[in-house]
Amino acid sequence: MGRNNYHTSVGDCGLLSATSKAIARLQRASQTFSERQAGCVTSPGIERSAFHPLEVPQLIEESFDQILATAAAISDPFEQAFFVMVQLPYLQPFDDVNKRVSRLAANIPLIKRNLAPLSFADVPRQIYTEAVLGVYELKKIDLLKDVFIWAYGRSAARYAAVRQSLGEPDPFRLRYREQFRELIAELVRARVGWSDVAARIAAWSEKEIVPDDREHFAEIVEAELIGLHEGNFARYRIRPSEFAWRQVWEAR
């Protein structure tokens, strides 16, 4: 019986938890086959391996649910990540890209805990393949564990370097992020000229910003308005047609 006969949609299987939906989306994004096959719980063969995964759709579904339940019960995010990276490829719940989905899904617990994400960009393909085959053929996780630890060390170091180059976020800007976005978009859409900006900001701030923060808030809004250009106005949810306000602003 061909594997497409086991084709069952994630929705039909009842995999309705947030994690299962996230994994299904990861699978669809990674899928190299047609959209008709994407997001399916099924059972392919394993290249270069005598290991044969489950083929009965009901058992695949039950095992998939059990993997998610067990992962949810694990408190340590690194253990969660490694558990998912081992179990998903071993179950082979999707037509294709099971290993890729497992590597992406391993980032879910890390990102939820605000930890550095995991990347396998520097891992030699041959070593990773041998590590996964060790799980398939021998049910041994030792090599894959070593690969995981090595890859995460590299990923964390790279992530730390990137964060350092970007600098720490401004707490004031973070606190008023939505207010900045709302007011700047409002000023642009209203085509407010330079001479009227200060008064409009002051009037708006009286309703939305605590007194001690109003002066600094106004300074940032004015600086952001001055710095608006074609490459960054979208961050304020401003449409290109609305950015024609720039002509009014430059005529100040």
From TrEMBL:
Taxonomic superkingdom:
Bacteria
Domain Fido span(s) in chain numbering: 21-153
Matching Pfam families, A to Z?
Answer: Fic (PF02661)
Protein name in the entry:
Fido domain-containing protein
